[in-house]
Amino acid sequence: MPLVRIDALRADAARLDALGRAVHDALVETIGIPPDDHFQILTGHDGDGSTLRYGNYLGVRRDDGIVYVVITMRAGRTPDQKRALYRRIAELAEEYAGTEPRNVFVTVLENESIDWSLGNGEAQYAPARDTPEESARP
Q1: Is 25 helix (H, G, I), strand (E, B) or coil?
Q2: What is the DSSP letter of 101?
Q3: Contact indicator for 97, 19 with CB cutoff of 8 Å
Q4: Given pLDDT bands bounded at 50, 70 and 90, which one contains residue 137?
Q5: Strands, E, within 33-113: which ranges?
Q6: Which positions are annotated as active-site residues?
Q7: 4-63, pLDDT tens digit by residue?
Q8: In what order do the strands lie in the sheet with 67-74?
Q9: What does the DSSP 8-state code read for residue 31?
């Protein structure tokens, strides 16, 4: 159940959609999330009232085509799976949205099953156990 946030500089609705599809397809292909597990926040920044900052850290020469991708998901993927994910996101972002791979900045934030409520005020991945300790909580 990844939650994906994509922020892109000077991106219109079509480019944001293409970037969203690229990230989603990469998640399905590389770490096996279900195709209907699709939760994204897509934000374009105009560079004036809203912008993104970037540098050339580690020798990667970024420019105004910068795209930040933050993926929050449950822990458990291997380093090789994450490397494959980053590579595939960069490939598909270029294919679908024309974004140069050097401008695709990805970070993964991991958490535990209890850290998710998918609706109805429930922790679907970590249902409550009927224990005296939990029953006594207000």
Answers
A1: helix
A2: G
A3: yes
A4: very low
A5: 40-45, 67-74, 104-111
A6: 2
A7: 999 999 999 999 999 999 999 999 999 999 999 999 999 999 988 899 999 999 999 999
A8: 40-45, 3-9, 67-74, 104-111
A9: H
Assess contact for 19 and 92: CB atoms under 8 A.
no
The number of C-alpha atoms within 13 Å of 111 and in the hemisphere containing its C-beta is 14
- Listed in sequence order, the residues at least 6 apart from 120 whose beta carbon sits closer than 8 Å to its beta carbon are none
- Nearest residue to 93 (alpha-carbon basis) of 71, 66, 73, 70: 66
> Is the pLDDT confidence value at 132 over 70?
no
The encoded tokens of residue 136 equal: 């006594």
Q: At what angle do helices 13-31 and 79-97 cross, to 10 degrees?
A: 150
Specify the pTM: 0.88
Percentage of residues in the chain with pLDDT exceeding 90? 78
Q: What are phi and psi of 45, to 5 degrees?
A: -120, 130
Q: How far apart are CA 61 and CA 81, in angstroms?
A: 25
